[in-house]
Amino acid sequence: MKSGTPALGDSLILGQRIYTHYPYRRYGEALVIRDGRVVACVSRRAARSLRSRRVRVADFGDAVLTPGLVDSHTHFFYWALHRELVIDVTHEMSLDATLRRIAAEAPRRKIGDWIVSRGFEINVWGTGFPSAADLDLATGEVPAIVRSRDGHCAWLNTAAMRRVGIHAQFPDPPGGRILRDSAGRATGVVQESAVDALPNPIVELAQRTDAAARRVVDRALSSAYREAWSFGFCGVHALDDAASLSHFQRQRSAGTLGFRVVHSIPHAEMSRAIALGLRSGIGDDWLRVGAIKIFSDGTLGSRTALMFDAYPGMADPASRFGVGVVTGEELRDAVVKAARHGWAVWIHAIGDRAAHECVAAIAAARKVESARLPHRIEHAQCVRPADIRAMARLGIITSVQPCHMLSDIPVADRNWPRARKHAFPLRRFFDAGLCVPFGSDVPVEPIDPRRGLFAAVARRDEHGNPSAGWHREQRVTIQQALAGFTEHAARSVGDAAPRGTLLPGAPADVTIWGGDPLQASFDELRELPIRGCAIAGVCHVD
Questions:
Q1: Domain with 517 in it
Q2: Rounded to two decimals, what is the model's pTM?
């Protein structure tokens, strides 16, 4: 059969304009697909000769098509469960509004005998950290846990503190902190590794294998897939746990996996994964294991990101510079061990000191790995220029979520008065020739890719400030930003060209836009319609 000749099951997807690859200068109007892969991108006139009853045609009229978007940093599995089961207070702008929301929804949203909520943000409230007594007003004697928006802080009521045994003499765990009042009593707020030690009813549900639990999980994932498709996503990189990977594998075997997933394995499971002979890249085009996920520090909002400069006004000498989780020699040893056994690492590092330590650890790993692995620094919200140059020399991938700028600009100005000039240095990353995959960090931020695109090119906050752009010299072009969700997302997990494009041979993964993202103004970009996507040529459009 001659190349380009339609075969049974071939299809055409048509639009007003199809951008095939960065820098998105040339385009066609019809995508020719065979067996889920791109054969060619041609004009509508050329496509007419390929039409037949054996060829499926999806004509989206004036739509603009781009390579399919991939969200390179998600907690997709637990976002799906949160949408189904957890009280979301992300949009509540005060402590009182948050308590009212929890009180209203708690009676019908309990998981077992727990109330679980997420999304509180003290930087929005402006009233400091809450207390267990505050949460008692909304929850009474039912144990309740509310996680912060960034997931690095948790707020417990009195019943929950009693249940888990937190009291005045309870020590801070390594890499964590329990906030205390002036008398030394625990206030009900814990941070970093102390959060991980708490009961997690959602995780307990995910770990169950009974039919009832699986039905809840499948219902939640099905709804989450539809939401992701509606924003044009054809795949995600998931940074969750073994239970998440197990459910995705179950769906892959059953043929119900909604899109392409590259999954990480938690650092705590690394030795087990090595003992089983696993390594980065095991899997297939739909589901595979990408890396070991390691936390090196905390977050900007919680003032736990590890920094060279002290946080203003922090009285506690132990936490003036943030909180290190896995750092120094421990970090280097973990990264070297991973690399020696064929594992890439994805290291959470938000502060400039954390990023510096990650660079040193990966430099050590480069000396022992048998082939160059796609090591990534996740977030990289504050990185000094010297470390960016070192990242370029070492081929370190910088996985960023520009959408964090929408809420973090005023927080960075307040918490990083000197270091803020190195915050979100996107232009510097691209100019250095780094691979810069973009993501959302959902559920920390909404999965909507337009927020990340807007933040990267405009560098403004939720309210459009500053109008000239925050450290505007670090703006990137819309072409670069779109590449972050496409070509760079593919390269960041070791995929070679033409993945992440619509060139011949690439998977026919397409995002379908209701306008042209490459020609939209900043304000138009935030509201640009997205009609859906096609994955391996199969359309998911409302």
A1: 1-68+501-542
A2: 0.89
